[in-house]
Amino acid sequence: MIRPRKAIERLKKYRPPLEGRGGKLRLDFNENTVGCDPAVARALRRLFRPEWLSRYPEYEEGRSELARHFGVRREELLLANGTDDAIKMICDAFVDPGDTLLVPAPTFPVYEFFHHVAGGRVLRVRYDEHFRLPLREIVAALRRTRVRWAAFANPNNPTGTSIPPCDLRAILEAAPRTVVLVDEAYCDFSGETVLPWIRKYENLIVTRTFSKAFGLAALRMGFLMANRNLAEMIHRAQNPFAVNSVALVSACEAVRHSEFARAYAAQARASRSMLTRKLDAMGIPYVPSAANFVLTRVGDRASEIARRLRKKGILVRDWNYDPHLRGYLRFTVGSAAQTRRLIRELEALTGLVESRDGRKAWRDLTAFSSTGWFA
Ligand SMILES: Cc1ncc(COP(=O)(O)O)c(C=O)c1O
């Protein structure tokens, strides 16, 4: 019998996102909920000619344009087939079997996924019950263990919490031989970035995506930025044609009209405030978020609430399967009308929600907000 590598034998079966989401209100995967800039769709229609489609992609012009837009040099930016692919590129370049990845938990699961595919071990450091980043434990682990790479989503998914710059600096400085990924998939919503630091820290990689504020999740377009040495190492192992021409042209068109993503992010932030005001009024605890989603504690009947919302055509992310997030649902926020619709349906389900005294609920989850833990 043919067997895969040991690392693949050990791998748990990947559960892909639900199918059949078209036509529903998609508040489950933190995408742009209204669609991309129509200017991008128009540009694609102009380009879809047989000759253009028959040609292998050419990257350098697009790469330069994106680098200029994001304020880095061309050699500091690598195109990727979504951030997921950028994460795989990091593993391809740096991870040998048995190497250690450090991640806070809970966080975006794809870091662990590709690290496991490469045969690595994972060291998870848990957020505390107030969803504060366990900085002291992280720094101690980085000093104690030989960690090959560490990954931090900022803001984090699924908590929505921001990592203060001083914490990221402490992490980068604690382990100069550890590659540190700061995944900025949601930075358009938080307004925070450490991108300028790639010139200062040789171990820093920053990733971005066109899947969120820009609304191009279907095209799988992301990129990573790092100092030229690190970028060159990763580039050496990269699939030469990982990014397709349609994705690259769309990304370039999207940054030429970046006011669309800015306006969408502003809309999502306003919706986030509308939703959290309502959650306060309903006494439902939530984690204050810097991203386009809110992690909410609705209680023991979380899965039932998610199912009922689905019947009403609203998809939300049920985190109840995670033993550390029992009773939690995550709601993506989009336009004001979509958020009002979510609120209306939640109000109709108040009987299922385990609400608490609103002020107490707020205190429970924000006990540390004044120290700057939550943006
Ligand atoms: C933190 C984080 N990084 C990356 C991604 C995926 O980005 P992409 O669609 O570019 O692969 C997600 C998607 O949910 C995410 O939450």
Description:
By secondary structure, the chain is of the alpha/beta class. It folds into 2 domains: 123 residues, Aspartate Aminotransferase, domain 1, CATH 3.90.1150.10; 219 residues, Aspartate Aminotransferase, domain 2. 41% of the residues lie in helices and 15% in strands. Strands 2-8-7-6-5-3-4 form a 7-stranded mixed β-sheet, sandwiched between helices. Helix 8 links the parallel strand 5 and strand 6. Helix 5 crosses helix 10. The longest helix has 24 residues. The chain is globular. Pyridoxal-5'-phosphate binds next to helix 5.
Which structural traits does this protein have?
about 375 residues, alpha/beta, Aspartate Aminotransferase, domain 1, Aspartate Aminotransferase, domain 2, 2 domains, 7-stranded mixed beta sheet, 4-stranded mixed beta sheet, disordered C terminus, binds pyridoxal-5'-phosphate
The top level CATH class name of the largest domain: Alpha Beta
Across the major sheet, the strand order is 2-8-7-6-5-3-4
Number of domains: 2
Q: Main β-sheet, in a few words?
A: 7 strands, mixed
Catalogue the ligands: pyridoxal-5'-phosphate
The sequence of SSEs as H and E is HEHHHEHEHEHEHEHEEHHHEHEEHH
| Extended strand count | 11
CA-atom Rg in angstroms? 21 Å
- The name of the CATH superfamily of the largest domain reads Type I PLP-dependent aspartate aminotransferase-like (Major domain)
User: Which residues form runs of ≥5 with pLDDT under 50?
Assistant: 366-375
